[in-house]
Amino acid sequence: METEQVKCLIIGSGPAGYTAAIYAGRANLSPVLYAGLQPGGQLTTTTDVENFPGYPAGIGGPELMEDLRKQAERFGADIRYGVATAADLSTSPYKITIDDGKIIEALAVIIATGATAKYLGLDDEKKYAGMGVSACATCDGFFYRKKVVAVVGGGDTACEEASYLSGLASKVYMIVRKPFLRASKVMQQRVFNNPKIEVLFEHNAVGLYGENGVEGVHLVKRKGEADEQRYDLPIDGFFLAIGHKPNSDIFKPWLDTDEVGYLLTEPGTPRTRVPGVFAAGDVADPHYRQAITAAASGCMAAIEAERYLLLNS
Question: Distance (Å, rounded) from C-alpha 99 to C-alpha 104?
Answer without folding.
Answer: 11
